[in-house]
């Protein structure tokens, strides 16, 4: 999900300093950042990268969304309504891109949240940075260190109260719905025939039938395997609540 233009959340610099302490000169530190849909992963990743750049480190952030299988493939496999679940990601390509980046550079595919599909035109070529934050869903459960070259070095779980996540999901859905009024190419244009109240009801149905089950069945269990758990509060401030790297 594209990061919103919020000011850096209080607590971000603490996370950035912790990651900076783990980066070995000459090596890329790959940070996997996951959590629920609408928890603010993209925004937090962007703020962490900005804070790390202040330390003169070369940093990049990319989304795992680019590793979703294209809509045509999901339709063929009858997985359209499970987009975001583990089986809808190309884990082999994700691991390959991570390995390539360690060697010098890699191409990372990208996803359009307007068309709701992988967009080859948005793919990015990234040269070996000091730190890469790979954020989103679809990250596999981390293995015990030392990890394979195709895995993230540090695995962060972004946690938040369920009521807050639901409110953020609805807010985001409605923002895209309103923007689609003048963009017929937007995925959300198909919902413009509904009233605002009807759209809110529909959005919450999507949350309850797709995103909440994914959170409960696949995302929350990852929290127990994370190297670091970060809690996000309603005011968007963040804090490290568990640091298993110490």
Structural overview:
- With 246 residues, the chain is of the alpha/beta class.
- 35% of the residues lie in helices and 19% in strands.
- It has 6 helices and 10 strands.
- The chain has helices at residues 12-20, 41-53, 71-76, 91-103, 162-179, 196-223; strands spanning 29-35, 59-63, 105-108, 111-112, 117-118, 124-127, 131-135, 154-160, 228-232, 238-243.
- It has a 6-stranded mixed sheet.
- A hairpin with a 4-residue loop joins strand 4 (111-112) and strand 5.
- Helix 1 crosses helix 2 and helix 5 (162-179) crosses helix 6 (196-223).
- The longest helix has 28 residues, at 196-223.
- The chain is globular and about 55 Å long.
- It starts with 11 loop residues before the first helix and ends with a strand.
Report the helical percentage.
25-40%
Strand order of the largest sheet: 2-7-1-8-9-10
Radius of gyration: 18 Å
Which overall shape is indicated by the principal axes computed on the Cα atoms? globular
- End-to-end separation in angstroms reads 30 Å
Helix count equals 6
Major sheet: 6 strands, mixed
Number of strands: 10
N-to-C order of helices and strands:
HEHEHHEEEEEEHHEE
Structural class: alpha/beta
Model regions low in confidence, pLDDT < 50 over at least 5 residues: 1-5
Indicate the proportion of strand residues: 15-25%
Q: Quote the average pLDDT.
A: 94
């Amino acid at each position: 999900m594209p990061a919103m233009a919020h000011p850096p959340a209080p607590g971000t610099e603490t996370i950035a300093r912790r990651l900076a302490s783990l980066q070995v000169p000459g090596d890329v530190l790959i940070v996997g950042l996951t959590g629920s849909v609408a928890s603010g992963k993209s925004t937090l990743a962007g703020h962490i990268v900005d804070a790390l750049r202040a330390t003169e480190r070369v940093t990049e952030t990319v989304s795992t969304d680019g590793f979703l299988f294209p809509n045509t493939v999901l339709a063929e496999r009858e997985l359209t309504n499970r987009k975001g679940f583990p089986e809808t990601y190309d884990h082999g390509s994700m691991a390959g891109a991570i390995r390539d980046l360690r060697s010098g550079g890699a191409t990372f595919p990208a996803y359009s949240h307007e068309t709701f599909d992988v967009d080859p035109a948005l793919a990015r070529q990234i040269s070996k940075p000091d730190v890469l934050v790979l954020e989103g869903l679809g990250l596999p459960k981390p293995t015990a260190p030392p990890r394979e070259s195709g895995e993230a070095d540090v695995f962060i779980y972004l946690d938040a109260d369920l009521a807050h996540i639901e409110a953020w999901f609805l807010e985001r859905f409605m923002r895209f719905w309103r923007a689609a009024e003048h963009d017929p190419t937007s995925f959300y244009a198909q919902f413009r025939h509904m009233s605002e109240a009807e759209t809110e009801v529909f959005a919450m149905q999507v949350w309850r039938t797709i995103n909440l089950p994914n959170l409960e069945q696949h995302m929350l269990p990852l929290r127990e395997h994370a190297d670091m758990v970060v809690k996000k509060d309603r005011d968007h401030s963040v804090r490290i609540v568990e640091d298993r790297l110490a």
